[in-house]
Amino acid sequence: MFYPPNAYNVYVNYIGQGSNAFKTDSEPLDWRHTCVTWDSDTGLVHLWVNGKLYPGGVSGKGSSIEASISLILGQEQDSYGGRFDATQSLVGEISDVHIWDYVLTPEDIQKVTSGDLHGNILNWKSLLYEIKGEVFVQPKNLHLESKVFVFPKETSTAHVILRPEITRPLQEVSVCLRSYTDLSRPYTPFSLATPGKDNAFLIYLQPPNTCFVHINQEDTYFKTDSESLDWRHICVTWDSNTGVVQLLVNGKLYPRRVSMKGSSIAAEGSIVLGQEQDSFGGGFDAKQSFVGEISDVHMWDYALSPRDVQKVISGGLLGNVINFKSVVYEVKGEVLIQPKP
C-alpha cells in the first residue's frame, strides 16, 4: 500500500501483525517502477523504486503464501476477492505487472526495468485477466518530458520502438531530435522501415562531419561542420512534391539535396531509435548502433521551414505524428530513461 508522497507499507501473510514500513525519496508526478521481494527462509522484505533499493525488515519468516489466491489490481481486498474501500482504491494507470516465485537480485531488477526479464508466474505480456467496473485498456503512454534515452554501450539489441498512429502514406516528413555521443564510428539515431524498404527514412551519421539521409532506399549525403562533444539538434525534412531534402543542425541549414521526387513512404512503418533496421523491425548491426543519449524526438507529416525549426529548438513546436512528450514507446535491451541534464 502506498501513502503519498513517499511511504509504503508491505504486508506479508498479515494476521494482526505489523506491516513493513518504508520511507522512500519523494517522487515527481511521473511513472514509477516498484518491486517488492520476500524470502520466507529469512523473512526479509525489500522494496525497490525506480531501481533504488530500500532495505526493509522481517515478516512472515518460515511461512508460505497459499496456492489458492485472489489477485486484484487497483483495490485492497478486506476479504477473499472483495470488500473493497473506495478510499483505498487506485486512481491512475498501471502497467508491466510481473510475479516470480523466487527473490530477484539487483541485476534481475535492472533487467526487469529495461524489459528483459518477465515474470514466471505472472507475465504481463501473456496473462489472463478480467476487468470489473470502469477500467480502460489503453496503449502505454509514458511521459518523456524532461527525459532522455541513454544507450550505454555498443550492442545489436538495445533500441527503442516508437509507435505513432500513421493512417496514410507520407508524402512529406520532418524528423527532429537531440543527441549526445562521443562515437567516432558511423551510427544511427533514427530508422524508419516499411515492408520491403528497410531504409524508408533513415538518419545515419558518420563523424566527424557527414550525414547520410535515406529516403525509400535512396541515400543522400551532406557535409556538415565537425561535431563537438556536446548535445546537438538535428532536423531532416523531405517533400515528395519537389524531392527536396533539408538538413538542419543546431538550426543551421546546409545545402539542400533532392531525393525520390514523387514517391511516398508507406503508412505501415517500424520506427526505431538507436539501431539501423536491415529488415522490417530487425536486422541490427552493433557497429551501426548508437551509444549515447537521445531526447526530444518529434516527427511531422509536413516539411518544416527553417523558421519552424527554430520554434522546435525553443520548444514552441511539437510533432503532430510523434510528440516526445506523449509518444507510445517500448524499450528493448539495455536502454535507460534518465532525467534530462
UniProtKB/TrEMBL annotation:
Record keywords, A-Z: Acute phase, Calcium, Disulfide bond, Metal-binding, Secreted, Signal
Subcellular location: Secreted
One Pfam family hit: Pentaxin
Positions in coiled-coil regions: none
InterPro entries: ConA-like_dom_sf, Pentaxin_CS, Pentraxin_domain, PTX_dom
Main location: secreted
Protein name per its UniProtKB record: C-reactive protein
Lineage, broadest ranks: Eukaryota, Metazoa, Chordata, Craniata, Vertebrata
